[in-house]
Amino acid sequence: MSTLVVVNPNASAGRAVKLWRSFEPAMAAAFPDMQVAVTQSARDLPGLIGSAADSGIERVIAVGGDGTNYAMINALVQLHDQNPARRMPDYGMFPIGTGCDFAAARGIPKGSLETVEWLIAAKPTPVDIGVVQFTHQGGATGRRCYLNIASGGASGDVSRRVNTALIKRPWTYLAATLATILTYKPSFVDVKLDGKDFFRGTAILVTCANSTTFGHGMIAAPNAKIDDGLLDVVILRDAGRISTLKALKQVYAGTHLSHPAVLSSRAREVRIETGGQVIDGDLDGEHFQGSDWLFTLRPGLLRILTC
């Protein structure tokens, strides 16, 4: 099967290319027809993947972390929508990045020879793709796709802090999380699931999960499945900083759904009305801002490599 490997040079704090080179011989032996492309910008991806698909490439493997996944998924969906009849390549991951939560949740070894063995054994599986529509501060509408987890509130503030950090260390995310909890002002939201009222009040965090884990090991939605056609919705109500810290401790074990400040459910459509207030959000580790969000799923839209 013909394979294109796409390397994000910015992943792993700019060390991705060097790390990839140490595994490239093993990958070339496993996939003799492998081609390698090092991208300079996410804007290059639609053209790169589109040309690969037109030339018969059947599998694309991204070298990077959650941010790379985000860029790749949006490029793949864009290409699909331009020509739904075109067969899109299967998508796989070679995790090398600051954040690799989706890969970890799927059991993909991070940056090792075990990753190569995992990819050899992996098979394509149809998965759902999340979509969020929102309003920019200037009034224009935005639309983005995600593979893992989308959320609004404190997680967006954490994402902003992490993405703007001059130096990223293993503890950067935890430090950003604690700083946010100590300073974050909760937002008033009106949440509707499949058109029905679910929550109205101030919330620290609203999560619409396609998979289970984000935030460097936080099991935000322990029951989420990437192929069930449903979003797992988890809301952390504003119950004070002490309560929030206790819930945060539980989320690393995935036991927070029983916390009194946590609400959870499932839905095909999630509408979060903010009354026009712009709040911070996080999409697969990427920071964005917007108001009045609508989350939906596109069931089985793409195929990813899984074991």
Describe the protein.
The chain is an alpha+beta fold. Helices cover 30% and strands 36% of the residues. The chain has helices spanning 11-14, 16-30, 45-54, 66-82, 101-105, 113-121, 154-163, 172-183, 241-251; strands spanning 3-7, 35-38, 59-64, 90-95, 123-135, 141-146, 149-153, 187-193, 196-209, 231-237, 262-267, 269-273, 279-283, 286-306. The chain has a six-stranded antiparallel barrel. A four-stranded parallel β-sheet has the order 2-1-3-4, sandwiched between helices. Strand 13 and strand 14 (286-306) form a beta hairpin. Helix 2 (16-30) crosses helix 6 (113-121), helix 3 packs across helix 4 (66-82) and helix 7 (154-163) packs across helix 8 (172-183). The longest helix is centred in the first third of the chain and has 17 residues, at 66-82. It is globular, with a radius of gyration of 19 Å. The relative contact order is 0.17.
Brief synopsis:
This protein has 307 residues and is an alpha+beta fold. The protein has helices at residues 11-14, 16-30, 45-54, 66-82, 101-105, 113-121, 154-163, 172-183, 241-251; strands at 3-7, 35-38, 59-64, 90-95, 123-135, 141-146, 149-153, 187-193, 196-209, 231-237, 262-267, 269-273, 279-283, 286-306. The longest helix is centred in the first third of the chain and has 17 residues, at 66-82.
